[in-house]
Amino acid sequence: MTKTESGTFLRAKFWHDRAEEVWSQASQMPDPEAKSTLVEIAERYDALADSIAAKEAVLQRRESRQPRRRDTVASDALV
């Protein structure tokens, strides 16, 4: 796991963890309106975490397709 992947995993996990906390609070909420609000917040936290992970996956694929600058410079020096 690269440093970037690790950081993204931690950011996504942070928001998934917040969602779990809010889901737990919502399950104990007696007021239907408050419960509905907490459920909406938890869903948004989960969506945010998923979005972070998806965007990072796209960036990782782009980075893996492009030659690294250092590699390009090194190969040019050999010519």
Q: Would you kindly provide a brief summary of this structure?
A:
With 79 residues, the protein is mainly alpha-helical.
Molecular structure report:
This protein is an all-alpha fold and 79 residues long. It has a domain at 20-65. It is 87% helix and 0% strand. It has three helices and no strands. Helix 1 (3-27) runs antiparallel to helix 2 (32-65). It starts with a helix and ends with a helix.
Give a quick set of tags describing it:
single chain, 79 residues, mainly alpha, 87% helix, rod-shaped
Helix content: over 70%
C-alpha termini separation: 33 Å
User: How many helices in DSSP terms?
Assistant: 3
Mean pLDDT, as a whole number?
83
CA radius of gyration: 20 Å
Q: How many strands?
A: 0
Strand content: under 5%
Q: Report the order of strands and helices.
A: HHH
Structural class: mainly alpha
Q: How many strands, which pairing sense, and closed or not: the largest β-sheet?
A: none
Global shape: rod-shaped
The low-pLDDT segments are none
List the helices and strands and how they pair.
Blueprint: H1 3-27, H2 32-65, H3 69-78
